[in-house]
Amino acid sequence: MPSEATPPFDLTDFGCPSLSGAATEQFSIQGVAPRVVLLPTTEEEVAAALKAASARQLTLAPYGGGTLQEIGYPPEVLDIVLSTRGLNRIITYEPADLTISVQAGCTLAQISAALAAHGQMLPFDAAGTDRATIGGLVAANLTGPRRFGTGSYRDLLIGVVIAYADGTVAKAGGQVVKNVSGYDLMKLHLGALGTLGVLLRLNFKVLTQRPVDITTVITGPLNALLSLAATLATSQLSLDSIELLGPSSLRDEATDWRLAERITGSQAGAQRKLTDLHRLADSHGCRTTTLGATEAQELWQDCASFISPGTASNEGVLIRISVQPSGLSNLVSTVTSLAHSNNLDCSVVAHAGDGTLFARLAGSDLTAAFRPLWESLTQGHANALILAAPGNLKGEVNLWGQLPSGFDLMRRIKAEFDPHRLLNRGRFIGHL
Amino acid sequence: MLQVRGLLSTMVLEESKSVHNDLISQLQNIVGADSVVSHPAELLVYEYDASLDRHLPAAVVLPQTTQQVVEIVKLANRFDLPVVPRGSGTGLSGGAIAIKGGIVIVTTRMNHILSIDYANRRATVQPGVINADLTHYTEHAGFFYAPDPSSQKVCTIGGNVAENSGGPHCLSYGATTNHILDLELVLPTGDVIHTSGADGDQHGLDLTGTVVGSEGTFGIATEVTVRLTPLPEDTQVLLAIFRSVDEASNTVSAIIGAGIIPAALEMMDGLCCQAIEAAYHAGYPPDAGAVLLVELDGLREAVEELVDQVSTICRNHGAGEVRRARSAAERAALWAGRKGALGALGRLAPNYYIQDGVVPRTKLPETLQFVEQVSRDIRLPIANVFHAGDGNLHPNILFDRQDPTNIERTLRGGLEILRFCVEKGGVVSGEHGIGLEKREHIAFLYTTEDLAVMARLRDCFNPRQLFNPDKIFPPLRGCGEVRDQRVAARLAKEGIYAV
Ligand SMILES: Cc1cc2nc3c(=O)[nH]c(=O)nc-3n(C[C@H](O)[C@H](O)[C@H](O)COP(=O)(O)OP(=O)(O)OC[C@H]3O[C@@H](n4cnc5c(N)ncnc54)[C@H](O)[C@@H]3O)c2cc1C
User: Is the distance from CB of B365 to CB of B359 less than 8 angstroms?
Assistant: First the structure.
């Protein structure tokens, strides 16, 4: 249904501040501008807007900071962008309980600042934290280096309030760290890209900042690094991150393969980890360097930017492939050799402990060169996803590679909660 | 007239008898005669779990393969019969009770560990594998399966998945849901899916996370891929002894408030200590008001620091004594006492009614005071043994089933405690599930709208509601309201909206 066919609508019907005309451009999603942008400031306004939109069968995309909108297909139709930035209150924060409840439009930086005042944190690695909203981050569930040791959205989200397509508002979970009362709808909305509902409020359990936070970088031959990573991942050291950095992947332009570790703990605990790490790296014939605080911060910020689709979609393609960690070595050589044989520049970063590889591909005839690469990759790897790509390419490939065996069920769930496909129409797996 | 009615009922009886025989013989065709239970006397074993309710199923089947499960589920669909998955039947919320009869699928013969992959820290098992067996099997290689319900020697991984079971060590390691990578799931339609990608990661919706904790209402798990965890280098166990529950619960709040998350942080009150000591001679002081059992693990150096910090906090909050287990044997004895606590309560009263509410951890002191007050009000003793670090209470109301006045007071006490938990910002179940037992109580926590959304999700998996029917959702009045919401949702689907 093309946008033109939809009858005209009165912007005041939505009961909240709005933008129209040229002002909507800045809320374009992958080149598609909405007809109106809604700027609700309360949860009730969001619900009312959804109700009004669904009564008129208008398509709608929730929009946080816009940092991850490159993920997924372009919207098939986009009538309304619903900005969640007005929902920016921290609702309750109980440092002594180690829990926090925030509205979806709070930025990660805002939440982190509130937590840091009490020596606490959420270990989410994201790019553009002063823009990225917590709702958007959870909806994308793009996990960073600390997923390995400290956990990510999935591990720490304990409650949600959701506004569904028809304006129904419902909660699940709660404000306690352990809960099996009713179904786990937190998981249902995690990574659903806002296709099942609009996140209004999220509750997390939070962590305590550790007194020591050290970053090391290990260099050596790729095979030695991968074997070291496997040893570290199954060791008792419980490192926060074990990240494989390919040549020229970060801003420092280093040309070697590297393994970056994040080590936290008490003085004694962290020191012990560091000692063991040195010993293990030596025994693998690799060299360990400890970074200064600023360097370390830059390195992790760069990692977050690398895996974030927001930054370079115009120039290249960003893909993510998940394998079992022992398959990483093969995967790295498959991806790099496929890139090479298709004349594409390729840089990679991988969560070595989890087996998740991110590759950025670029080249002069990207579209033609990428298609055969993607075809071979997705044949061998069931869990491959294109996170960002130029628009013309997105029209030609399956961004999610293969559809999983549960896809029919996913379709049924979508049909139940958004029968008219109003939320982010066509953007998710299988064009749901 | 009478005669006709008699004739009719005989006909119905005859007909249902022949239907029943037909069902049994078809089930036998699928799994073999020795894997179908249909004799009323033998069915009695499957009429209850570890909760208070009971109901007889029409038949019990014990398949060994996924394919057999698929055929059983399809058969049940043809007969319009409910299907209830069942592991070891240790559930505390009635989840495995066939409240509407039908077929119970017992997974205890699906008990093979299919593969273990230490390099990738994972194992794939059939659902009937016993929780503790997986840890025993992997310990020699330096790994374990972290979720450790106290019932771990008997409960199944499939049951753990369905309940999202917890256990003492879930405080730092997370509950079952944090350790499940993939499920092979036979849906209520008989279709088989894997809930994750081949690598165990989300691809599309997080079906794995959605299914864990769905209490057997979304399908039956026939294979489970779990995360294995490296065993910690060092483990130390402290037993801190307090004069009162109040002191002990303030200590819990203080430990958490200091940002220390021990591997486990369990509380037992005086009544529990007496029962445990009488049963196991595990080293619990029978004259204590309450004790905290604290496990600290990790690298040696870090554990030493934590032992000091936690001991100091305990002493500063009134612990008369903080004992440290000196050997693996002493640690094991303390844990055996803790994990056997429910069994030991049998020494105090013929029955116990266990509550599973959770409160924010700063609310523990006042909540435990309230529990004491309830005990006085209902004139029944309440023994507390629970996962204090998570704020997950287990007040056990001790009663005698034979005494009808006892039952009324017991239920009232349980209800008041759960109401209080919810008032304090908590929830009605932390790990035992809703099942039959807490169907009414879930409405303290969630509105009709909240529950309607959950019911709609269930219907996506389980459209005919044949799978584990009448569980989780409030019956009677509540149910009617939930249904209305669903009708409204259905209408909305057709583009019709209430004005
Ligand atoms: C003494 C004692 C101590 C306990 N301690 C704890 C504790 O510390 N922590 C805790 O969390 N629980 C505890 N429990 C509760 C209970 O042991 C757990 O809920 C356990 O996970 C149930 O496992 P089971 O195999 O006995 O499952 P069952 O009781 O047989 O079934 C439980 C539920 O799981 C469903 N189910 C079973 N198998 C499958 C399958 N393969 N696929 C789909 N659904 C399935 C059933 O339909 C039912 O709804 C305790 C129970 C007892 C009796």
Answer: no
Q: Label residue A432 exposed, middle or buried (CB < 10 Å: 0-12, 13-18, 19+).
A: buried
**Cβ pairs A/B, distance under 8 A:** 269
Give, for ligand 1, the residue of B52, B86, B470 to mutate: max count of ligand atoms closer than 8 Å to Cβ: B86
> B350-437, what's its fold?
Alpha-Beta Plaits (3.30.70)
Q: Is the CB of B216 under 6 A from ligand 1?
A: yes
Angstrom CA distances, B12 to A75, B6, B15, B23, stand at 58, 10, 5, 16
**Chain A neighbors of B249, CB-CB under 8 A:** none
| Cβ contact B428–A181 (<8 Å) | yes
For ligand 1, say whether the CB of B158 is within 6 Å of any of its atoms.
Answer: yes
pLDDT in tens, B464-482: 999 999 999 998 544 444 5
Q: Do B204 and A181 touch (CB under 8 A)?
A: no
Distance B376 CA to ligand 1 centre (A): 31
pLDDT above 80 for B211: yes
- A29 compared with B495, residue with greater pLDDT: A29
Read off the pLDDT of residues B182-191 as tens digits, 9 standing for 90 and up: 999 999 999 9
The radius of gyration of chain A from alpha carbons, rounded to an integer in Å, stands at 22
Average pLDDT of the segment spanning A144-151: 95
CA–centroid distance, B221 to ligand 1, in Å, is 13
Return the sign of the alpha-carbon dihedral for residues A219, A220, A226, A232: negative
pTM, two decimal places: 0.95
Q: Are B207 and A406 within 8 A, CB to CB?
A: yes
Nearest-angstrom CA–CA distance, B43 and B38? 6
Comparing B16 with B379, which gets the higher pLDDT?
Answer: B379
**Gap from B18 CA to chain A (nearest CA, Å):** 36
Select B2-106's CATH number: 1.10.405.10, 3.40.630.30, 3.30.43.10, 3.40.50.1820: 3.30.43.10
d(CA B218, CA B202): 18
Helix segments in A101-146, DSSP class H: 108-116, 134-140
Does residue B484 have a pLDDT over 70?
no
- Bridge partners of residue A385, in order along the sequence: A320
B469 C-beta closer than 6 A to ligand 1: no
- Residue range(s) occupied by CATH 3.30.70.2190 in chain A: 212-306, 309-394
Give tens-digit pLDDT for B341-354. Answer: 999 998 899 999 99
pLDDT, position A12? 72
Task: Using alpha carbons, select from A83, A80, A45 the residue that is nearest to residue A66.
Answer: A83
Does the B232-348 domain belong in CATH 3.30.70.2190? yes
- B300 Cβ contact partners less than 8 Å away, ≥ 6 residues apart: A272, B233, B234
Indicate where chain B has its CATH 3.30.465.10 domain(s): 113-230
Cβ–Cβ of B199/A273 closer than 8 Å? no
| % of chain A residues with pLDDT over 70 | 97
First to last CA, chain B: 51
**Beta-carbon separation of B453 and A168 below 8 A:** yes
- Residue bearing the CA closest to ligand 1, atom 53: B90
Contact criterion met (CB < 8 Å) for B209 and A187: yes
The per-residue pLDDT for range A241-298, each reduced to its tens digit, is 999 999 999 988 889 999 999 999 999 999 999 999 999 999 999 999 999 999 999 9
Q: How far is the CA of B439 from the centre of ligand 1 (A)?
A: 17
> Looking at the predicted structure, is the pLDDT value of residue B11 above 90?
no
Please identify, by atom number, the ligand 1 atom nearest to the C-alpha of residue B219.
43
Span B158-180, pLDDT tens digits: 999 999 999 999 999 999 999 99
Interface test with A, best of B118, B189, B201 (most A CBs within 10 A): B201
B91 lines ligand 1 (CB under 6 A): yes
**In the CATH hierarchy, which fold is given to the domain comprising A90-208?**
3.30.465
Q: Which CATH architecture is the domain A11-84+418-431 placed in?
A: 2-Layer Sandwich (3.30)
pLDDT above 70 (res B5) = no
